[in-house]
Amino acid sequence: MAKEVVSRKENYSLWYNNLVTKADLAENSAVRGCMVIKPYGYAIWEKMQGTLDKMFKDTGHVNAYFPLFIPKSFFSREASHVDGFAKECAVVTHYRLKNDPDGNGVIVDQEAKLDEELVVRPTSETIIWNTYKSWIQSYRDLPILCNQWANVVRWEMRTRLFLRTAEFLWQEGHTAHATQQEAIDEAEKMIHVYADFVQNWMGVPVIIGKKSESERFAGAVDTYAIEALMQDGKALQAGTSHFLGQNFAKAFDVQFANKDGKLDYVWATSWGVSTRLMGALIMAHSDDNGLILPPKLAPIHVVIIPIYKGEEELNLLRSQSKILKKKMEERGIIVKIDDRDNVRSGFKFAEYELKGVPVRLAIGPRDYQNGTVEVARRDTLEKQTVLQEGIADYVSNLLEEIQVNIFKKALKFREENTHKVDTYEEFKKKIEEGGFILAHWDGTSETEVKVKEETKATIRCIPLDMPEEAGVCMVTGKPSKQRVIFARSY
RNA sequence: CGGGGUGUGGCGCAGUUGGCUAGCGCGCCACGUUCGGGACGUGGAGGUCGAAGGUUCGAGUCCUUUCACCCCGACCA
After folding, report:
1. pLDDT tens, residue by residue, A421-430
2. Alpha carbon distances (Å) from A309 to A315, A316, A361
3. pLDDT, tens digit, 9 for 90 and up, residues A321-341
4. Which nucleotide has its C1' atom closest to residue A364's CA?
5. Domains of chain A listed by start with CATH number
6. Separation of CA A117 and C1' B18 in angstroms?
7. What is the ipTM of this complex?
8. For residue A1, is pLDDT > 70?
9. Model pTM?
10. Nearest nucleotide (C1') to the CA of residue A354?
11. Could you check whether the bond before residue A71 is cis, i.e. omega within 30 degrees of 0?
12. B1 C1': nearest CA residue
């Protein structure tokens, strides 16, 4: 008897459950809104991390690490930056506990108060720029191209598992350059690195663009972003790259002597992606049977499930499975044999579908006789019986095909849910259906605010590689050079 | 921080206008039969009903306070 499946609209948690849970600590816990990443979920994150890390290094970056705690005063330096983060910071005020003399357990020792409070980093621009100041004196010290893998904390008023947890894992790149153009190039380069990763590894199509003024990062001159569309019709910002101008250099007084011997402020960028990407991965691909993982990021590519009666058959199939496993491993395929004797094979089928393992091989006595194996692919749920001979090639090709197919499917979904709209009336109707809307906008914040208030939709980005097209703003009728992307977002 | 909702074994829930020993499904344990798509039978373990206080002969149920979580806003990756 198959169990009832929770529908996608009702609940994403079915898919999440293999990967992550809410932090489940004592009552009154202040860590609400945090998450526990389970081993299987972390294995995916490690794959993402490894791939991105290599991409960063291939583009000339190096890893470094900076402190978790940032002196409060650092935040006062860059005005718009503090505006953006002040409301969501965790602050350390004391450094010691003691036993309560009244016997109520442990209390904060009020005598151990810090002179200056420490802020748990919500992002590291301030402490990094304070550090860079001592690293930079001459144009010969530039560029500095550092990346940091770290956790950060943002005390959001409302959290959402994966998409907006109070603590999350991410990487943040922070670069310093001698010229404006070099910094702009860096910011653009990195948003393209992100797009490459999200599309070609995660299989999620994205639109690369610039943020409008009101959606910009606190302290940035320009914010580039990649925007993805989830299956429920909402947009998700999957990564950002910021051209910071000289804002942080000025705030932290980071000057260098240029080739002419004159002092100038350093030009900066920062860029980051987080565990939110795992949310994107899940929400973009999963179906009612559970996760669908792209082979390039799946912790297990292939699971082999022996189907047997009795110990004799099991042993026979077990050793045959090992042979198949070895053949595939020689081709770099990650294979798991699930020969657990205490759950039935149908249960295993369902379990690995829930986990999103791309390919399943089932081998039973009949297959053993015929020298065949049943191959099932997770993305289409199709099953086929193929010869064991040449299985490594077959599976290797299949994995590549699945990787491409997942992307195509997501792209098709996005295209079917992207609409050009020319009037505000039509816009209001279309936005209710979800998806991306391409419309003309007069470039003003006022119009953007009005649209947001009336429809809850925001400008996700001003696409970079979309042809210019003259038109008029759908709201005000003022001239516009190009269409921008509107959507409701997470 | 505003509006709405929910707290009952590990998970999901039922429990009527207060009334007997607090139930059900899943899961868990034991034994047996099963095993090519989430098995079935029999037996069993597991609960301070979110917390504190109150009303009452009697509270999961009523009242007060409080805490947490979820959803919708505002804020944000």
Report:
1. 999 999 998 9
2. 10, 11, 17
3. 999 999 999 999 999 999 998
4. B36
5. 13-83+122-285 (3.30.930.10), 300-404 (3.40.50.800), 418-487 (3.30.110.30)
6. 53
7. 0.83
8. no
9. 0.93
10. B38
11. no
12. A157
